[in-house]
User: Fold this.
Amino acid sequence: MIRIILQIVVPLLLPTVAYVLWARYARQHTLADLRRGPWIWLVGAGLVLVAASAAVWIAVEHQPPGSTYVPPRFEDGKLVPGHFQ
Assistant:
């Protein structure tokens, strides 16, 4: 669940949150004035960030073909994290 939030939700919303904070700080606009904002560009930037985070995730978590996932388990009272073999 945390991976979904970090990989999809945060990058998708980050440009919009940054724009709203900037508009409120720089121009002292009200939320009603923000309706005319560059929403298409903000959604596009969010989608680009989601694609970039997915590409980084794939590059970092890449496993060789044919590898098998071993789920987390307890051994001798200690938790052994999941891994690929």
The two ends are 24 Å apart (CA to CA). The first helix runs from residue 2 to 26. The chain has one domain: 2-84.
